[in-house]
Specification:
4 strands; about 350 residues; Rhomboid-like fold; mainly alpha
Length: about 350
């Protein structure tokens, strides 16, 4: 999702055969919605029927196709697939997390004695000083469960960031790793764009916030539930951004993890409103988590109402409201009612093992 000023400019350069260069773009840390200068002149040209676009001429870039402002009916139809994708993906995410937790707890009991024996053998085995693997294990064991959980998410973001540096990947990245309701591909970018950053500063800021809140959110929800909430939050916040863009007619690509991270931040601040927070570069100024959340929601609400085009305020609000709703009501409605699914999974696994055991005799 989110930071899309550069994505619009980058897509123009890719279509005109030029390479994207990082120094062309101002760097920010928050999720953005696309913005552009008012076109000075528009040449009449037949719009592309597949992408729904028209030519656009600006002093900032060569003439390329820009998004047509759809009429009300066709635009709303473009939200049907994203809506069902959001519902289906969220259900699959929480269902998979419930099964994952069940399998993990069961395997943990089964492997208890094996791990104890491995630790005993490791103590008898002579240790090598300066062994790299030993140092990595020591560092890994020093992390909290939350920090270990988000390490994979951070690694995925770094990997996607590296893909943006490959010139031959630019078209693919713009198509699948930026979200836009006017795009030819609607559903998969809703998830993939939440792992996508073009600016190093943008990615570093988002990942720093995620790392900072990781211990609190994982201790609050648990590893499996957190993963389901985080992935669902990315898709839900993107869908809210889609709705806002279609409703207002302001189309443009977005990317970034800010929507999902806003869910994490809002969930922690809702459950621990008296916790003290501080700005990274201004640690002397502290404020409560509850006040911080109110300020963020107020700013994004104002940006959405007033039509600010600097950030993707709809995605921010979607992520924050989902985080507040989930820790207040969603946990009771979704996670605590996972038992029927887990029971059905257990029965299915038991039957499959019974058939496998019967066939072995």
């Amino acid at each position: 999702m989110a930071w899309s000023c550069w994505a619009r400019l980058c897509s123009r350069e890719v279509l005109s055969g030029r390479r994207c260069r990082g120094h062309r773009f101002t760097l920010y840390t928050q999720q953005r919605n696309g913005f552009k200068r008012v076109p000075q002149k528009t040449e009449p040209r037949k719009p592309d029927q597949e992408t729904g676009s028209k030519p656009y001429k600006s002093s900032l870039s060569p003439p390329v196709q820009e998004t047509i402002l759809y009429t009300s009916s066709p635009s709303l139809k473009r939200l049907v697939k994203p809506f069902f994708f959001t519902i289906g993906f969220t259900g699959c995410a929480f269902g998979s997390a419930a099964i994952w937790q069940y399998e993990y707890l069961k395997s943990r009991v089964q492997n208890y004695f094996d791990e104890a024996r491995a630790d005993w053998m490791d103590k008898l085995r002579p240790q090598k000083n300066g062994d790299f693997r030993k140092q990595v294990n020591k560092w890994w064991n020093s992390l909290s469960e939350g920090q270990r959980t988000v390490t994979g998410i951070i690694a995925a973001n770094v990997f996607v960031f590296c893909l943006w540096r490959i010139p031959s990947m630019q078209r693919t990245m713009i198509t699948y790793f930026t979200s836009n309701p006017a795009s030819r591909v609607l559903c998969s970018p809703m998830l993939l764009s939440t792992f996508s950053h073009f600016s190093l500063f943008h990615m570093a800021a988002n990942m720093y916030v995620l790392w900072s809140f990781s211990s609190s959110i994982v201790s609050l929800l648990g590893r499996e539930q957190f993963i389901a909430v985080y992935l669902s939050a990315g898709v839900i916040s993107t869908f809210v951004s889609y709705v806002s863009k279609v409703t207002t007619g302001r189309f443009g690509p977005s990317l970034g993890a800010s929507g999902a991270i806003m869910t994490v931040l809002a969930a922690v601040c809702t459950k621990m409103p008296e916790a003290k927070l501080a700005i990274i570069l201004l640690p002397m100024f502290t404020f409560t988590a509850g006040n911080a959340l109110k300020a963020i929601i107020a700013m994004d609400t104002a940006g959405l109402v007033l039509g600010w085009k600097f950030f993707d305020h709809a995605a921010h609000l979607g992520g924050a409201l989902f985080g507040i709703w989930y820790v207040t009501y969603g946990h009771e409605l979704i996670w605590k009612n996972r038992e029927p699914l887990v029971k059905a999974w257990h029965e299915m696994r038991s039957k499959s093992r019974g058939k496998g055991g019967g066939g072995s005799h």
